[in-house]
Amino acid sequence: CQEKILFCHGEARAAYPQRTLLPVEVVSCPGDYELRQYETAKWVSTVIRGETQKEAMRQGFWKLFHYIQGKNEKEVKIDMTVPVTCLVKSGCTDFKISFFVPFEHQDSPPQPTDSDVFIEERKAAALFVRSFGGFASPEKYAEEADALARTLRNRGQPFHEDFFYTAGYDSPFKLFNRHNEVWYFKK
């Protein structure tokens, strides 16, 4: 699986050797975005309601971090993975924050003990991806998502416009060469 990880704009594995990366195959790189094919995979997720995106990300991250630190039915520690994603729906203040479940737990992930945390299976999908650097704020994610949406419309690429995902790859302590993404699902 991990041999498929090869992003057009850099070597993902070289940048994140200490973390498990979501398996992905780059289908095409038209320039300012990528079309990627993601495999079916399990994620651990939580939904934070009625908060700002920034606060939802903070709360959601900690709920999921407690899960990987052993707040699960098997009380096992689970490796941190990347990316951390956030589902952003147009006009909605509910945000779904998710961690990819590592390969060794994909078949049978430990069940969460926090009732706000759940395991979900995301089906295989083709995604349009725009990457950018720096520290990403909700405003920056929205700006990048808008830019990707404009590009896709201009090129006649059909995509689901009513939601997008943000994807963060770095710890807040990493100061340089940061990697962030926005994802739209291809129709």
TrEMBL record:
<dbReference type="Pfam" id="PF04832">
    <property type="entry name" value="SOUL"/>
</dbReference>
<comment type="similarity">
    <text>Belongs to the HEBP family.</text>
</comment>
<protein>
    <recommendedName>
        <fullName>Heme-binding protein 2</fullName>
    </recommendedName>
</protein>
<dbReference type="GO" id="GO:0020037">
    <property type="term" value="F:heme binding"/>
</dbReference>
<dbReference type="GO" id="GO:0005737">
    <property type="term" value="C:cytoplasm"/>
</dbReference>
<dbReference type="InterPro" id="IPR011256">
    <property type="entry name" value="Reg_factor_effector_dom_sf"/>
</dbReference>
<dbReference type="InterPro" id="IPR006917">
    <property type="entry name" value="SOUL_heme-bd"/>
</dbReference>
